[in-house]
Amino acid sequence: MLINSEMIYALQIVAYLYGSKKYVNTKRIAKDEKLSVLFVRKVATKLVNAGILTAVEGVNGGLMLKKNFPLADVVHAVGDPIVFAGRHKNKKIEKLLLDIKQRFLRTLNYTKINKISKKGFRYAESNIQE
To answer: What are 78-122's pLDDT values in tens digits?
Structure first.
């Protein structure tokens, strides 16, 4: 199982944007969440390409969450969270790993962004220029 930095950033970004009625630029997200601006932009691009976020360019532009997605959609937008290296000779171990994977994916599918958001969007009125 691999939960990488991109997946963590993706979850932080969507949790931050949850409830926003305005576009928020990546500098604001990075500053408020204490994340790398470049990495936020990289992950945000993947989330936009996956249809999780909407992006608008310009002075009043930024990112906005399209809807309250399951966390599985967010995580899969940046990669596969469950990768097992090879097959196991011990069938009990293989069955256990498969069970762990299924439970993890089920949890991600049933948990939506609002469940990880601190209290919805916090900085709707503030804006840092890109």
So the answer is: 987 676 666 678 888 888 888 888 898 899 999 999 988 875 444
DSSP assignment of 3-46 equals: --HHHHHHHHHHHHHTT-SS-B-HHHHHHHHT--HHHHHHHHHH
How far is C-alpha 57 from the geometric centre of its chain's CA atoms? Answer: 21
- Topology (CATH) of 5-115: Arc Repressor Mutant, subunit A (1.10.10)
Q: What does the domain layout of the chain look like in residue ranges? A: 5-115
pLDDT digits (tens, 9 = 90+) for 55-74: 999 888 999 999 999 999 99
81 phi, psi to nearest 5 deg: -75, -15
